Amino acid sequence: MDTKSIGRPPKAPKHWDQRFLVIASHVAGWSKDPSTKVGAVAVRNRRILATGYNGLPAGVDDTDSRLANRETRLKMTTHAEMNCVAYAARSGVCLTGATMYVWPLMTCSQCAAVLIQAEINKVVVPDFVEPFRWQESFDLARQMFVEAGVTVHRVPMKGPVNQEEEPIDTSPCSLDVT
Questions:
Q1: Spatial contact of 53 and 28, defined as CB atoms under 8 Å apart
Q2: Domain that holds residue 70
Q3: Is 59 contained in some domain?
Q4: Which of 16, 53, 132, 167 is the most buried (most CB within 10 A)?
C-alpha cells in the first residue's frame, strides 16, 4: 500500500476541471463590464476557496457612465483573478498550491504575476480561447508561468457547456425554503 497517498484526495479527473470552468463562467456573469466578462475560481482538493470577477473595486461606484467609457473602465477595473486573490486574502484563505480556473480568457501577464506570488500552482482555461487583442499579454503570461513552474491546462469546452457529458445548467440556482 502506498502510504504517501493516504488522506489525499485522488487527482481530479478532467470532468472536474470542466465543472469548475462552468462555475467560473457563471461567476463571470456577475461582472457589469459591458464588453468583457471574466470569472475566476480558486480551488484546492475540489473545494472552492474563493471566486472573483472583473469589475470596479469594492466601494467604488460602478456608474453607467464609467462602465460605458472604455478608457475609464479599463483604468479602474480589477481583473477577475486579482479579485479572487484579494477576496481570499481578506478572508484569510491561503491559496498556496491551489488551482485557478479562469473563464473565458487566458490570464494576462499582470494577473499571472499576482497568481505566481500567491503560489497558485495550476491555471485552467477553456481550450477555445482564440487570439485576442491582448494576445501579447497572454503569451507573456504563459512564459512567466513556465519560468515559475505554474502549469497551464486548456480544457475542452464548448461555450459554457461541457462537451463530454449532458449539458450543465449554469443558470442561478434557487432554494425553496418555504
A1: yes
A2: 16-155
A3: yes
A4: 53
24-73 residue pLDDT tens: 999 999 999 999 999 999 999 999 999 999 999 999 999 999 999 999 99
The whole-angstrom distance between residue 61's C-alpha and the CA centroid of its chain comes to 24
Residue 33 within a domain:
yes
Is 166 labeled as catalytic in the residue annotation? no
Cβ(94)–Cβ(122) below 8 Å:
no
Please write the tens of the pLDDT for every residue from 64-95: 999 999 999 999 999 999 999 999 999 999 99
6 within a domain of the structure (yes/no) = no
Catalytic residue, from 71, 81, 130, 136: name it: 81
Give me the number of domains the chain comprises. Answer: 1
Q: Are 101 and 122 in contact (CB under 8 A)?
A: no
Please give the model's pTM, rounded to 2 decimal places.
0.80
